Amino acid sequence: METENHTSAVSLFAKTDAMQNADFWNNQYKANTTGWDLGQVSPPLKRYIDQLTDKNQRILIPGCGNTYEAEYLLQHGFNNITLIDIAPILVERLKIKFAFNSAIKILLGNFFTHNGEYDLVLEQTFFCALDTSLRLSYVAKMKELLAVNGKLVGVFFNKLFEQNGPPFGGVKQEYIHLFKDDFHFKVVDECYNSFIKRKDSELFIILQKRGTD
Questions:
Q1: Per residue in 88-113, pLDDT tens?
Q2: Closest CA to 129 of 95, 91, 94, 87
Q3: Which of 109, 127, 95 lies closest to 207, judged by CA?
Q4: Which domain holds residue 79?
């Protein structure tokens, strides 16, 4: 009985914490205080998408926000895109925006409890929105969600912030230490084509799940 109560308490805490996060992000969209929103496709991701040839690969965009990347993918013929975000008001807007488009699936939920298998995960301001205490869980979940030869591709901040986040920053050596046991580093370079307001503050990353070629 004690074990059942303890489990229930833990589950309730996790649920409450998730709901608080949902409220936080929901309020940002309600108030239009979305300073992270570029208003366009992130230039590094646009360039990466442009060289992809397999339009059928399974693509996940976690913490998707207004997801200009998804729009761009659809415009270029990709047909298996999944979006997930924790903010209900945003998800409802996206469902209206992409209504009747069978190439895209839009989910309201917590990335860490999401189940699926993907060939590619696109990272754009999701990692930096998470408290640093969740970074090991982020790595583990990415490893779980990616298929054989699966890749995590996107941008991470290459700077530290004076204020407590979000966003939460980091540096290259930290990321290498964080991902080295589970991923091969294909690219971890200073980003030469960042959005102008993020110039000289980003790393472009291509990480491939270990156990693959």
A1: 988 999 999 999 899 999 999 999 99
A2: 87
A3: 127
A4: 38-209
